[in-house]
Amino acid sequence: MKGKIAVVPGDGIGPEICRSAVDVLDAVNKRFVHEITTFEGKAGGEAFEKSGKHLPEETIDICEKADAILFGAVGGPVDAQEEPKWKDAEKHVILGLRKKFDLFANLRPLRVWPGTESFSALKPELVKDMDVLIVRELVSGIYFGRHERVDTQTAEDVSRYSKDEIERVLRVAFDAAASRRKKLTVVDKANVLETSRLWREVANAVKKDFPAVEMEFMFVDNAAMQLVRNPAQFDVIVTENMFGDILSDLGGAIVGSLGLLPSASLNARKFGLYEPSHGSAPDIAGKGIANPTAQILSLALLLRYTYNLHKEADAIEAAILAAWNAGEKTKDLGGALSTDEFTACVVKKLAA
């Protein structure tokens, strides 16, 4: 098959790990005889230096002409966040792309692969066979509500949801659960928040279309505790924007590293932005030590959700697991391989 992917590496380690993903894509093209090509667009600090914008129009144009976006990371050093080059870079780029393409459903798999239980901060027996999917609503809620400094002593942030915004992401989550272990956990704070009560009303209505899926409600504070105490109890978790942001990062510690977590942000047409859950890590940029796993796994999600190429996605995941099982790991996982060396191992396993 033929396809077009917009690659937006961004800042920090973004260019390094995106190169890794493109190398893996080349191997997929060769093994499965596809013609999926890539086109690069600039975003973040480098783009700002050249065009005065963190997300230039030419990058948006490249993304509009593609089937999907493979994104790296944006952002600069913590102590330079107020410099024009970095100020609000993530907001302009990430939130801008989410709104531009209406990427309302964020899928974050939390998976502990066989033989990788030792990566987790929890006891191996607690995470064995853990395979949880968090579905996070991505373009509404408190992040996109009104933010106001009322006076010097008071600030206000508004969380807003409509029935339609809730229903569409719930249907994505129910569909996912129906194709997995048929259990959906709706996480909210309905004992306090009116938006959460609306979520429950909509969830109960949508549940009627998915009789085979077991649904439960859980308060977000309890969900955080349960993820640490017994993560394997979950199948699919669906929740609003801010809760999803927090729980999925907690999931990174459970799995072992944000460097292992891919994500997919989809719209109704299955157009998606695929990115690792970690940031730009400017402190290690250019050192060749970044773990490209999350970026490569994000490519696998792209092949699965945008192109429906499930065999190809499975092959990428199997190649990564084969590399780990052979002791071929990056330094953050206790190995000795550089970014490029680990990528080469994955490519070799994929070809074999």
From TrEMBL:
Pathway: Amino-acid biosynthesis; L-leucine biosynthesis; L-leucine from 3-methyl-2-oxobutanoate: step 3/4
Catalyzed chemical reaction(s): (2R,3S)-3-isopropylmalate + NAD(+) = 4-methyl-2-oxopentanoate + CO2 + NADH
Chief localisation class: cytoplasm
One GO CC annotation: cytosol
Gene Ontology MF term list: 3-isopropylmalate dehydrogenase activity; magnesium ion binding; NAD binding
EC annotation from Swiss-Prot or TrEMBL: 1.1.1.85
Keywords from the named record: Amino-acid biosynthesis, Branched-chain amino acid biosynthesis, Cytoplasm, Leucine biosynthesis, Magnesium, Manganese, Metal-binding, NAD, Oxidoreductase
Record protein name field: 3-isopropylmalate dehydrogenase
Organism: Candidatus Kaiserbacteria bacterium RIFCSPHIGHO2_02_FULL_59_21
Gene: leuB
